[in-house]
Amino acid sequence: MTLTSKQRAFLNSQAHSLKPIVQVGKNGLTNEIKTSVRNALDARELIKLTLLQNTDEDIHEVAEILEDEIGVDTVQKIGRILILYKQSAKKENRKLSVKIKAL
After folding, report:
1. In whole angstroms, how far apart are CA 3 and each of 52, 78, 81?
2. Which of 45, 74, 76, 91 is positioned for an S-S bond with 96, CB 3.0–4.6 A?
C-alpha cells in the first residue's frame, strides 16, 4: 500500500511524540532486528527505528530492505531515524489503520 501525502502527514504527526523502539547497531540489520520490527509493527502499527552511530548500514538501504522483506511503508527518513508503518495483522491492534483509510 502506498501512502498519500495526507496519510504521511497524519502519520508524521502521530509519530512525533514516539521514542525509537528498535535500534540497528554495529551488527547491522540482523534477522533478530527484523523480527522485532515485525512484532512491534503488529502491536503498534507505527514505530520509529534508529541507526546507531557505530553501524555501517545506510538508512536508505535499511528502508528498502524492510519494505521488500516485511512490507512496511516508510513514512519518513530523518537523519538516522526511520518512521515505519504497517497495518497490524491483529484486528484488535488496528487503531491507526482505521484512521488512515478514512483520509
Report:
1. 27, 18, 19
2. 45
- Closest by CA to 76, choosing from 88, 52, 56, 59, is 59
C-alpha cell at 10: 497524519
CA gap 35, 32 in Å, rounded = 5
Architecture of domain 5-102: 2-Layer Sandwich (3.30)
Q: How much is the pTM?
A: 0.90
Q: Return the domain boundaries, the chain.
A: 5-102
The model's pLDDT over 53-76, given as tens digits with 9 standing for 90+, comes to 999 999 999 999 999 999 999 999
Please count the residues of the chain. Answer: 103
